[in-house]
Amino acid sequence: MKNAIPRYNFYKTKYGSELLIDVVDLQYTRKFLTQGKVHILTYYDITFITEGEGEFTIGNRTHLAAPGDVFFSKPGEVRSWDTDRIGNGHALIFEDTFLTSFFKDPLFVQHLPFFRMGKMVDKLQLPNGLYARILQLLHDIKVEIDSFHPHDTGILRALLYEVLMLLNRAYCTSIPPETGKEPHKDISSFHLSRFFELVGEHFREQHSVQFYADKLCITPNYLNEILSSAININAKQYILNKVTDEAQRLLTYTDLPISEIASELHFSTVSYFVRSFRQCIGYTPLAYRKMEKP
């Protein structure tokens, strides 16, 4: 693919033996963004801003970042941040297996509201007291890493778990119910999580609600019901939003022709893709590219 977006993998042996957690300063990571500010991470990242103000983009959402702000990104999301105006901060980065192997729950991290597939909010503003408490925990994690022993990661896992639980509480308290509420803790919660995973895997090829309902062994009507209850949109709209987000990414960060993007996203015709995109965004793909491409 032309103009491929730089993809950064976790440096697992940075401290000798494999370690799947780290805390890095933004001043340190800035020097690795040599091919431009837009990039993709293959691991989880929680960024805490401590100095400066500037734009921070995750996917198609751009926020103003300022001290006290926290940003959450999942593996595979397109990111960028203003390396000239955001002075410094800390990035807590980790692979999900660092925790899931300990808790024996392969979906533990994915079920956190700020990392869930259907999340609507990437940014959190923390009260000063809580922000200071979490920054101290980041310092403690860094101290523990600096004295790292390969077979003694229990304290690191405990510290990471404490940070995640504090952020989970703050996120669920701060985000309005229609965008941050938890699904009911029953079978519908399983269907919801699995639907988000399936869409993430298949949305480029499969746009039909029936396909996902069949995979979940439920009816399309029931799938629409549990999705509408959780995030206030039906399954068809969620799938279309996902496809449109990917189209926006390809239009902005690649030079692929409109026809190739339509083909890659499995639209039957280019005109159908143009019509669908315009209905969602308000612009044709070509007009959107002219406005948004760096």
TrEMBL record:
Gene3D superfamilies: Homeodomain-like (1.10.10.60), Jelly Rolls (2.60.120.10)
Location of the HTH araC/xylS-type domain: 193-291
UniProt cross-references to SMART domains, sorted A to Z: HTH_ARAC
PROSITE patterns: HTH_ARAC_FAMILY_2
GO molecular function, one term: DNA-binding transcription factor activity
Sorted UniProt keywords: DNA-binding, Transcription, Transcription regulation
Name this protein carries in UniProt: Bacterial regulatory helix-turn-helix s, AraC family protein
Organism per entry: Bacteroides uniformis str. 3978 T3 ii
Native organism taxonomy: Bacteria, Pseudomonadati, Bacteroidota, Bacteroidia, Bacteroidales
